[in-house]
């Protein structure tokens, strides 16, 4: 009997934050604003309206994502164990029939084979449905993860006066180079974890 294993949690890590997050705000120009240079200001100067977040670091340090990863690793493991148990039970039943087939009448063999064939089809359908249900749940959680991060960044960008927050991932990014002074990953992770710990 063909065995299919459920897709592991690996896609979860990459699907959530590959696209760029953008948070734009429309501010009226303040003509009375004075421009000062201060060596004690933040690494990103007010004139720099684009910053980035390293999604690799974000996914490894964001407690919400880590909890989701553990949750789905457990669900995947349980689903695989369940399918393995059902598959082994079917194989035992098939082996018993093969041993007893010689002693059965033609009608009995036909009836048993039809029953086993139906059972195998049901088992395959169950496996496919269980795998699809798990993938759908993962997709829903991916969307929630994306929304949590995007909504946080929207407020973060508004507070800081950034026009855009990009995401950077090694080997999978449109950003070839960015000055480290534009990296706000640590600050974002700290804020996301503080927000998550309150819930």
TrEMBL record:
<dbReference type="GO" id="GO:0050821">
    <property type="term" value="P:protein stabilization"/>
</dbReference>
<keyword id="KW-0175">Coiled coil</keyword>
<protein>
    <submittedName>
        <fullName>OmpH family outer membrane protein</fullName>
    </submittedName>
</protein>
<dbReference type="InterPro" id="IPR024930">
    <property type="entry name" value="Skp_dom_sf"/>
</dbReference>
<dbReference type="Pfam" id="PF03938">
    <property type="entry name" value="OmpH"/>
</dbReference>
<dbReference type="GO" id="GO:0051082">
    <property type="term" value="F:unfolded protein binding"/>
</dbReference>
<dbReference type="InterPro" id="IPR005632">
    <property type="entry name" value="Chaperone_Skp"/>
</dbReference>
<comment type="similarity">
    <text>Belongs to the Skp family.</text>
</comment>
<feature type="signal peptide">
    <location>
        <begin position="1"/>
        <end position="22"/>
    </location>
</feature>
<feature type="coiled-coil region">
    <location>
        <begin position="94"/>
        <end position="143"/>
    </location>
</feature>
<dbReference type="GO" id="GO:0005829">
    <property type="term" value="C:cytosol"/>
</dbReference>
<keyword id="KW-0732">Signal</keyword>
